[in-house]
Amino acid sequence: MRGFLAMTIAGLALTAQAEVTYQKPSQAILDVMHAPAPPVTSLSPARTHVLLMARQLYPGIAEVSAPVLRIAGVRINPANNGPHTSMVTGTSLTIKAIEGGAETKITVPPGARLGMPVWSPDGKQFAILNTTPATIDLYVGAVGSAVLRKIPGAVLSDAIGNPAVWLAGSKELLVKLVPAGRGKAPSPPAAPAGPNVQESSGQSGPVRTYQDMLKTPYDEALFDYYATAQMAAVDVASGRISPIGKPALIANMNASPDGKHILVTRVQRPYSYVHTYMSFPKEVEVWDRTGRTAFKVHSAPLEDKVPIEGVTTGPRNIAWRPTDGASLVWWEALDGGNPKTKATHRDRLMLMRAPFTGKPVEVYKTQHRAMGIMYGESGGLAIVADYDRDRRWMQAFRIFLDDPSAQPKQVWSRNIQDRYKDPGQPLMKRLPTGGTVIQQSGDFAFLSGAGATPQGDRPFLDRLNLTTLETERIFRAGDQGYESVVGLLSDDGARFLTTFETPDTPPNLYIRTRGSDQRKAVTAFQDPTPILRKIKRQLVTYKREDGVQLSFTLFLPPDYQEGQKLPTILWAYPLEYNDADTAGQIGGSTQRFVSMRGSSHLFLLLQGYAILNDATIPIVGNPETVNNTYVEQLVASAKAAIDKAVEMGVTDRNRVGVSGHSYGAFMTANLLAHSDLFRAGVARSGAYNRTLTPFGFQSERRTFWEARDTYMKMSPFTYANQIKEPILLIHGEADNNMGTFPINSDRLYQAIRGNGGTVRLVMLPNESHGYAAKESVEHVVWEMSAWFDKYVKGATAPAANALAGSSWQLQGNARVTMQFAADGRVAGSGGCNRYTGQAKIDGANLSFGPMASTQMACPGEAMNQEREFLAALGKAERFQLADGALVIFAQGSTQPLTFVKAGGLAGTSWAMAGNAGVTLQFDPNGKVSGRGGCNRYSGQAKIDGDKLSFGPLVSTRMACPGDAMKQEQEFLAALGKAARFTLDGAGLTIHMAGASQPIKFVRANEVSAAFVGAAKP
């Protein structure tokens, strides 16, 4: 009993969780983390002023922990009927004139928590929301005024959709209000009225893995209460509020350019418990200003039958045409919305004009799935684009909506991932009626792009002739510094606004004049973190073993001394590509100003680490099957990055860690499971079990049931027993990202722990996919720093790999071979096909990652034997080296795999079984010699795997008594027909072509001395 109690207490000690309070990283990190951020800038549509908004960097954990309703795919703050957390929290506002630089400081409400400003089309004023604990209030500011006017009585509803937009001009706003007198929120039932039931009719309904769904009728009642809003028009000058229609669940609202109609999307029942509100049934209607329905555009059913990567049937993306008084445009699928359906055209563009009494007109068909439409300022000009998902190919055409006879003309056609051929995007402008169109100057439009090159990004501004479709370069950033276009300051593009930065100076706004190298400063933001200017940065390119071009940006800490070999962190996020050329293209720039915010991994630079930042991890292949080789390409890319960093002399190979967020966390866990490249890892907010995302993830199109092996192979949870390096798992307890349920980290922790791995699980209270609270971001950086300091920075060189460089063949079947490389890779033949993979060796522990193999068909039982062999390797647990043999023990098997040294004939001596006078010696140089029972012979032996042949053999000419001469001649003739051999422990068997009886030998040192002596000639 006493022993049992002691064991129980010991067991509890293993699982006990010590209380942990929020920790802070080093002061050097805190100084950078909390340095003032530059203001957010917003250019007015009039292009005369810029609005500068200072902002709060991090809310406190108390704010992040405020009550929240997680329903229908949204998170609602029940106290103020708005979103639970705001992405932008402005604290002050300043209006700055672009010419002259005059500034007007705007008075804001005490304790302001401002959203992004929404400029009026004329650029003279702006609307802005201010969030208080109990309400979301509407304010209006004006250029040249220091006053921010509150609209009395405008208590906004911001639960779903956009709460405020300008109403066809600059005099009115269209808003959604909390309905007056709506009463108290529903109370939870004292007891359930019955079970919560879902049912399917048997039709296919794949759905991605969403979170925060409705679960009960009470959730439905809460959604009705908080999402129902009263639409109204607000006269900005007088503050008069005019209700429009009755309260409804309004998802979207937009006024027609003439201001006489409003396009309204209303959410309808029945609701879904597996889809967000955006997939709920909807009524799309045109209302007049009184709220009367003038035209019903579409009654959309629940979107529960949409194929993966498909679209809904019927009208979708319904919107006003910005250059007409009241015309609707929308797309309709011609292939049933299914991308797998073969079709000449996939979508068509429809046009419907007021008074909406006629029929919609088809104006264009796309060959592939429609990507969208951009409108010219006049003449019915538009640019429409479509996308071929199989080739990842985009094409764009110029059309004229009002001229059906005009032939479409191709503007662009390219691989959407081809950075080097990206023509950029048209600069847009706001019309006086509020619509957004391509900014034109006569026949010209203007394109702005990143300007990717093999040396890094160099942004540009081009002028596109909309008639000839020829382009002319107006501006290109230099190779020193990074400069990109914010917008035009003159219609003809002669003057434009840019943001310019260098590694030593922060981004600021400048006026540029076409043809001049001079910049005129508009802002003068200062460097808040001078310590970061000491960081060294370099773009590094290299190749993977299959020839794919890769790159990373090497960051070195501020105090780095040339020649130091540093502990290093690889940070990455895998992406899928169709081909190696686009996969190898360079993105980003080393000419940008380094800044760090939130829980950035770059803070580890201040702790003495080198960082291989944004190391490219391309997964290249056909979009349908690209993930079949995910693991192999993942490991190969990571190895290539480390090899390059070691070659450069900056990385200590024995002290490398890996980290990533989301899909990068998934990558991290897989790399630890399938390679020995890293000493430790930190995986943040990842998905680790792909059976929890069975209807696809990232770019994976197949369901779990269509690609079961791939889903299992890609899931690090499946290989938790192979994660022997220490791994830190960090996850927000309230993660609402599609697919990354917090249970992923919890279950992976349990799996690794249960298999004896070293693992730590940190669940962040009330945090989502990204971490927001000041306390949380500080703690995450502390966790990462402490983990890598313990297991990477402080690591010593690993023990020598006892199997590195050795080659083996299966005892009794020399066709089955195995070679161990020094870097942990393993390769060989399964008896028919070649296989490759990764071996993990820790002392006497041995395990193998998934094996990739060729797919040759094999005769007889060879295929089954090969499958059994590879399956056995997949269950390997440990190994033993004894008497020159390698013995591998597999889980659940009583019969180990025994290997002997491959090519083990060199330097060996043999005697024929039953006749020790017949001998055979192989020397290391390929020569063979021995006795045939009477004479000595010698010659050449050729060994290739299990194949064996002998060259012409020469022998002495002694006469032998009795049958000895005949037996010797038969023996030498048999050697001349040798075809292959097998090694079985101490035995050698030589098989001859056309002979049913092989010759068997035993090792000469295992033949008794008496027997050998008796056989001497």
The coarse overall form would be elongated
Q: How many DSSP E strands? A: 66
Question: What's the total helix number?
Answer: 13
Structural class: mainly beta
For the report, how would you describe the main beta sheet?
9 strands, antiparallel
The Cα radius of gyration reads 36 Å
Low-confidence stretches: 1-16, 1005-1017
Q: Into which percentage range does the β-strand content fall? A: 35-45%
Which bin fits the share of residues in helices?
A: 10-25%
Distance from first to last alpha carbon: 75 Å
Q: What number is the mean pLDDT?
A: 90
How would you describe this protein?
This protein has 1017 residues and is mostly beta strands. Strands 49, 50, 51, 52, 53, 54, 55, 56 and 57 form a 9-stranded antiparallel sheet that branches. Strands 58, 59, 60, 61, 62, 63, 64, 65 and 66 form a 9-stranded antiparallel sheet that branches. A hairpin with a 4-residue loop joins strand 60 and strand 61.
Write the layout of secondary structure elements.
Elements: H1 2-15, H2 27-33, E1 40-43, E2 49-55, H3 61-64, E3 69-71, E4 74-77, E5 82-83, E6 90-97, E7 103-106, E8 118-119, E9 125-131, E10 136-142, E11 148-155, E12 164-166, E13 172-177, H4 217-227, E14 230-235, E15 241-243, E16 250-255, E17 261-267, E18 282-288, E19 293-300, E20 316-320, E21 327-333, E22 347-353, E23 361-366, E24 369-375, E25 381-388, E26 393-400, E27 409-415, E28 425-426, E29 428-430, E30 436-438, E31 440-441, E32 444-449, E33 460-465, E34 471-476, E35 482-488, E36 495-501, E37 508-513, E38 519-521, E39 536-543, E40 549-556, E41 566-572, E42 575-577, H5 580-583, E43 610-615, E44 618-620, H6 630-647, E45 651-661, H7 663-674, E46 680-684, H8 708-714, E47 727-732, H9 743-754, E48 759-764, H10 774-793, E49 807-810, E50 813-820, E51 825-829, E52 834-842, E53 845-848, E54 852-853, H11 862-874, E55 876-882, E56 885-890, E57 897-901, E58 909-912, E59 915-922, E60 927-931, E61 936-944, E62 947-950, E63 954-955, H12 964-976, E64 978-984, E65 987-992, E66 999-1003, H13 1009-1014
Parallel strand pairs: 41-43, 41-45, 42-44, 45-46, 46-47, 47-48
Antiparallel strand pairs: 1-2, 2-6, 3-4, 4-5, 6-7, 8-9, 9-10, 10-11, 12-13, 13-14, 14-15, 16-17, 17-18, 18-19, 20-21, 21-22, 22-23, 24-25, 25-26, 26-27, 28-32, 29-30, 31-32, 32-33, 33-34, 35-36, 36-37, 37-38, 39-40, 40-43, 49-50, 49-57, 50-51, 51-52, 52-53, 52-54, 55-56, 56-57, 58-59, 58-66, ...
